[in-house]
Design goal:
The complex is a heterodimer. Chain A is mostly helical. In chain A, helix 3 packs antiparallel against helix 4. Chain A is elongated. The mean pLDDT of chain A is 94. By secondary structure, chain B is mostly helical. The mean pLDDT of chain B is 94. The radius of gyration of chain B is 18 Å and the shape is elongated. Classes of the chains: A mainly alpha, B mainly alpha. Chains A and B meet through helix 1, helix 2 and helix 3 of A and helix 1, helix 2, helix 3 and helix 4 of B.
Chain lengths: 126, 113
Amino acid sequence: MRVTQDRPVFLNLLRIRQPVAAVVSILHRLSGFFMVLLLPGLIYLLQLSLSSVDGYSRAIAFMDKPLLRYIAIGLCWMFTHHFLAGLRFLLLDFDVGITRNTARKTAWLVHVGAILVTAIAASRIL
Amino acid sequence: MSRSPSSGLRGWLIQRLSAVYIAIFSLVLMGAWIDQSVTYYVWRNWVANPLVNITLIIFFLAILFHAWVGIRDIVMDYIKPDYARYLLLTGFGLVLIGMGLWMLRILILVTPV
């Protein structure tokens, strides 16, 4: 096969229409990354809630602040999407749902599932 | 396990196994705690219970291992210069180890009240 060095390449990912599975995948990566950033805060809340009666009420009151409620909803979406997308990947590892049409359907299911669960959680948090 | 030095199999396995434990434990946690408003005493005694305490510690360790593999993948995919890889991987590694030790202190020191 001849190698042609001068052909133009178009690799601007943001301007290429991505398949739904690709969107699920990159969101899976992003949600994982941002959850890692939230870990120290969560560990701190755990520590606070276990320290004393006062600490416990402060931890609860902290999560009741408006900004924290939105972060909690964000965290809910991140966890649910990562969970469902991860489950889809795990099934794909075992060759479950590897055909193109099934893979597309399960990708949509991940999106819908994550948004649904987050919507339910949001209605209770807000 | 594949004997090739960098086959990635170990990371892949750790990520999957930790994911399964995290998934199951998360569902159990949510089942136990959704719609519960409890007092400090109920909460603390629950965390202090040995079975809960130990499975909880393993839960956090699983998260840290899972996070490590994920972060490593991200760094390897997007960060090319060697010095930057060393810096970020070491940095994140230390942070994760630190959080692990912090979490261990918190959970091991919880006593019933």
